[in-house]
Design goal:
about 260 residues, alpha/beta, 5 strands, about 10% strand
Length: about 260
């Protein structure tokens, strides 16, 4: 099997990770594209002594780290995700966020995450704890949950409340979701794809975003269907069945780039 065939199944998930790390589909996809260009230009440099997925993420990290130049947070406007992120980065290190996303969202072990960011496993665990603690202190929001499965909705609501956020409501259809969002504007939306009346959570979110801007995290059992790189796609995506730590990490990252929760 060729290297391209080995890497292809992992690309949707690398895009997910890159978007969550940067807070932008465009910027995340640009880094993934640069990663693939680097592999094509020098295939002999690709790590062959590890699993292809590890090698892919390791190459991505080399590209991202080399381009991640520190800027003065005061030089960024707070009306865009990048400016908000830079303001928050004065309070938290990028390495901690990488450790959090690699373990909680991407499912890497502390050992594998350590290989990717060049840290010992116990250091990875310390970084994850640091990231969660700091981001949770920085971010508080009202959350709308769009989910038609009662057990899953209750589980998500518990996670959201445990993180210190308020739940504005739980909607099970497109129309209900839009009505609840307009009645009490949330600071974050968690949306399932398939809803009770066969309507689409994607359409519900489009209707909401047509009225006002809000960070959105989609939940789906088939993430590869949304992460094709061929059309506008969600920046934040949770795969079903999900771990509680995954939801926490996604919420933390979505709010990380939202200026509504930026501390004064």
């Amino acid at each position: 099997m060729s290297l391209g065939q080995d890497l292809a199944p992992h690309l949707p998930f690398l895009r997910r990770y890159a978007r969550a790390l940067t807070g932008s589909q465009q910027h995340g996809d640009n880094f993934v594209r640069a990663t693939l260009e680097a592999i094509v230009a020098a295939p002999g440099d690709f790590p062959r002594d590890v699993d292809p997925r590890l090698g892919l993420y390791r190459t991505f990290h080399a590209i991202w780290s080399s381009a991640n130049i520190e800027e003065d947070p005061g030089s960024f406007g707070l009306d865009n995700p990048e400016g908000v992120a830079q303001a928050r980065l004065s309070r938290i290190t990028p390495l901690s966020r990488q450790a959090l996303l690699l373990t909680a969202m991407e499912g890497f072990t502390p050992e594998d995450a350590g290989y990717l960011i060049e840290a010992a496993p116990d250091e990875v665990e310390r970084l994850v704890a640091e990231a969660l603690s700091e981001i949770e202190r920085q971010t508080r929001a009202e959350v709308l949950i769009i989910e038609d499965e009662p057990i899953i909705a209750m589980d998500i609501e518990t996670i959201v409340r445990d993180l210190g956020h308020q739940v504005t409501g739980v909607a099970v259809t497109r129309d209900e979701a839009v009505a609840q969002a307009l009645a009490r504007r949330p600071g974050l939306v968690l949306a399932d794809i398939q809803l009770a009346d066969d309507s689409s959570g994607i359409d519900a979110v489009k209707d909401i975003l047509a009225e006002f801007q809000v960070p959105v995290i989609f939940i789906t059992a088939f993430p590869e269907r949304l992460l094709t790189g061929e059309r506008p796609e969600p920046t934040f995506l949770i795969t079903k069945p999900f771990q509680r730590s995954t939801v926490k990490a996604a919420i933390a990252q979505a709010l990380f780039f939202d200026n509504a929760t930026l501390p004064a």
